[in-house]
Amino acid sequence: MKNIYCLILILLSSNFLFSQTVTVLDESNLQGIENVYIYNSSQSTLTNKSGKANIGQFAKNDTLIFQHPSFKTIARSYESIVNSNFVVRLSESVIDINEIVISANRWEQKKNEVPNQISTISAKEITNSNAQTTADLLGTANGVYIQKSQLGGGSPMIRGFATNRVLIVIDGVRMNNAIYRSGNLQNVISLDANATANAEIIMGPGSVIYGSDAIGGVMDFHTLSPTLSDSSMIFKAGAMARYSTANKENTGHFRFNIGGKKWSFLSSATYSSFDDLRMGSNEHDEYTRSHYVTRTGNADTMLVNPDKNIQKKSGYNQLNLMEKLRFQPNQNLDINYAFHYSKLSDVPRYDRLIEYSADILKYAEWYYGPQEWMMHALKIEIKRPTELFDGAKITAAYQDYKESRHNRKFNKENFREQFEKVKVASITFDFDKSLNDNNSLFYGLEGVYNLVNSDAHQKSIATGATTADASRYPDGSDYQSVAAYLNFKHKINEQLSLTSGLRYNQIWLNADFDTTFYKFPFKKENTTNGALNGSLGLVFNSPKQWQFKLNGSTGFRSPNIDDIGKVFDSEPGNVVVPNPELKPEYAWNADFWIAKTINQSIQLEAGLFYTLLNNAMVRRDFLFNGQDSIMYDGELSKVQALSNASKAYVYGFQVIINAEIFKKFVFQSNLTYTKGEEQDETSGEYVPLRHASPLFGSTHLIYRAKKISIDLYANYNGEISNKNLAPSEQAKPDIYATDSKGNPYSPAWYTFNLKAIYQLNHYLQVNAGLENLMDLRYRPYSSGIVAPGRNFIFSLRMTI
């Protein structure tokens, strides 16, 4: 009997202890919130990864305060916590007062202490956006404009720069390789939006930390990380299914995490298929797809499109896989291995498929072959302080990238096919060291090696026979870089801090040119370039909730294999040839930002930026062996090449508003203006810069309540008149509307949209949306594909 009493007592006490574990949830999605600070005047604790914390140390007559930088702070009596079954719900704050960012110097810092302007996309915003691709996800960030040549694409423009003048980073590894071109890129869609934990976009040069290419900005993606257990083995899983009507999208995503105290494993897979995209039905009839080409027997035939709003031959599909393994033997060492794989199907180059030669479509077929990207990455993080560092990160990565181009003109027998492979090995060493309470150092080393293989042939569609053809790049060329950087942060006083940095890069490029098909006046190219970059920034946070940021920085881009060694058709009637005389371009940037927070419920931000680009690499008329035109792909084409223009400049402003206007109602708005011009080194005249986006922005009215969120919003885009189009854009009349004088221009447009999220329970979430409510027919600036018409999106998410 005594043993029975003891057993009952143990069970009762364990039940009592369990009942003193509080669970803190996000009221909108019912998920646990990690690192909620629970305290009173004498006690405190933090919630774990599941949002749980033991509050047994608090007295029953205590009042507890629940605080998290992303949520509104609340106070609850112990008695009310007991009455709510030890569950506390927090509502999201409009203003993240202590938001943490990593991209500024590769280590965690408070965003309000960083002089760079950084736009962030949180995990919740990723879920709420329901983006089809990572390019679409980037388009939701303040200050990022997305161009699309085809449905399977997405080229970000940031502050007047794009393509190889902006840098993509995934988990600390640079994705930009030696064949990133100045023409629009679609590489960012190789990343899986559903496997992304969050993203940060540095506005303006980031070359001090990231090196070459980081002139316009840095897009830093952080993927999901394996979760360890505090005690026993844990299993977590998530799944998502989505359907969209505009392109009949079918996407399925599944992931799971198994975690112990020292080991954990994460697996993620996403598959998407997209049919031909339907555009809107109102305005701009010139955008419609009136005809398309099909092969009948041994001849190509132009057929009338039965539905001119269907963009025939634009669909594709995509597979993404990610596997991660984590080992943390102790608190001082964390080892992570990651495997990423992405493969696209053939992707039709839609902007080329709508080009006409007289009244006939120029191309019967034009598509990118399967774009494949694979990465192995090993990251070792050491958290044990030494005399040299407090923390260290070593990241080694290997990437294998494949792409190809396939095109055949109308009623021509031969396909022209070009194949590229790039192998990239990289290693970075990043360290941080706190010198004292007011001074910190961040420093590191980086090495990158690129090997480029390029091949091409002509293939008969009748016999399958192939004949050799000129490759796009010099086969076997390589591109290498080494760098060292140092960043210093000094806290002058409680309100004022200074950040400064230096980086030196050394770059080598080697290429052997094949003169079989083109009689180049050179056979080898061996160049060595060096660049010293610096930054200096001040941040002032006043006690009256004002913030001022002043930042000056430089950036550079060294010519890569694509710049120096490529032969290709840039637009109808023009061919770009190699120019071995190219030199690095160098950017000088300054920006000033001011922000005001009112009653922790309204935040107003405004900023000005200016960038001067010296030795800008731009496309110009050129001579090849003394000729201004040569035969290319069976057509007499005007010769052009990348050249170092005298200079280019970009300036603009950005305004951001976040406000809780009423209880549960949030107002958000942002507007970005960019103006850019480049100077012709011959005439001295300035012409519009190709990647300077139009005026654009968005405005949201959001209702948030328990288990539900509703977002009514507008996206808008200003006009670019013909005279403000870059010369290279004026040469593409097939993708632009026609003004009253018959000249191409990019019209203004706007869309109204509605999205809603409902959390059925802890495990299931319904996400639905209606985009482009008015079914407008519009084409974002410089895009080949027309934007989706009225589009209904429905997804179901499960989390366990």
Annotation field: number of helices: 8
E-strand count: 56
Mean pLDDT across every amino acid position: 92
Distance between the termini: 42 Å
Largest sheet: 22 strands, antiparallel, barrel
| Molecular shape | globular
Topology:
Blueprint (H helix, E strand, L loop, with lengths): L1 H18 L1 E6 L10 E3 L4 E3 L5 E3 L8 E6 L2 E7 H6 L3 E4 L9 E2 L7 E2 L6 E5 L1 H7 L4 H5 L5 E4 L7 E4 L2 E2 L3 E5 L2 E2 L21 E8 L3 H4 L6 E7 L10 E11 L4 E11 L3 E12 L2 E2 L12 E6 L2 E6 L5 E2 L4 E15 L2 E12 L2 E2 L1 H4 L2 E2 L2 E2 L1 E6 L3 E11 L8 E19 L4 E23 L2 E22 L5 E3 L8 E15 L4 E17 L11 E18 L4 E12 L3 H5 L2 E4 L2 E3 L8 E14 L3 E13 L2 E5 L7 E4 L2 E10 L2 E16 L2 E15 L6 E3 L7 E10 L2 E10 L9 H4 L6 E2 L5 E2 L3 E11 L4 E8 L19 E9 L1
Parallel strand pairs: 1-7, 14-17, 41-46
Antiparallel strand pairs: 1-4, 2-3, 2-5, 5-6, 8-9, 10-16, 11-12, 12-13, 14-15, 16-17, 18-19, 18-56, 19-20, 20-25, 21-24, 22-23, 25-26, 26-31, 27-30, 28-29, 30-32, 31-32, 32-33, 33-34, 34-35, 34-36, 36-37, 37-38, 38-39, 39-42, 40-41, 42-43, 43-47, 44-46, 45-46, 47-48, 48-49, 48-50, 50-51, 51-54, ...
